[in-house]
Amino acid sequence: MKLTPAMQDFILHWGEMGSKWGVNRSVAQIHALLHLAPEPMAADEICAALNLARSNVSTGLKELQGWKLVSTSRDLGDRRDKFHSIRDMFDLAQVVIEERRNREFAPTIAALEKVAEEAKTDQTPPHIKTRMAETLQTMQMFDKWYTDVARLPRGVQMAALKLGGQIVRFLPKSG
């Protein structure tokens, strides 16, 4: 696949953003390429397009598959795996959010629950226990909100997103 300057800039920026999100730059670039690619690509095609070593591409593809961002397919008569990204941006965003929740947010809630239980029986000062409890309750509230919204039909989720900040019209005024 021939990359235009705009495509190269997209891939480079996605790689930069990936490194800020805690994802290896080349892994994010592989994802960006597959996101743009009109057809699934073989690993050797990815190597050529991005000028990356085969081992780097293989490792990156495994990581992207672990994140459920990339899937494989095969063409009849071709032994090579072809890789493709989630095409629908809404689905892509949902997968990223859900994976980050499972890998980062949920374990933090579990750790905070454990710490709160420990604090009940050790010498943790009351004001620290209160702060821990507030932290846990707030994170649980955000997690419940996310899980409630994630269960809604896609159309309802899209309507809420389109409504955006206008929702404040329906909320009581503060102050």
TrEMBL record:
Keyword Oxidoreductase: no
One Pfam family from the record: MarR_2
Residue ranges occupied by any HTH marR-type domain in the UniProt entry: 22-80
Top-level taxon of origin: Bacteria
InterPro entries, A to Z: ArsR-like_HTH, HTH-GbsR_regulator, HTH_MarR-typ, MJ1563, WH-like_DNA-bd_sf, WH_DNA-bd_sf
Keywords assigned by UniProt, alphabetized: DNA-binding, Transcription, Transcription regulation
UniProt similarity note: Belongs to the GbsR family.
Official protein name in the record: HTH-type transcriptional regulator
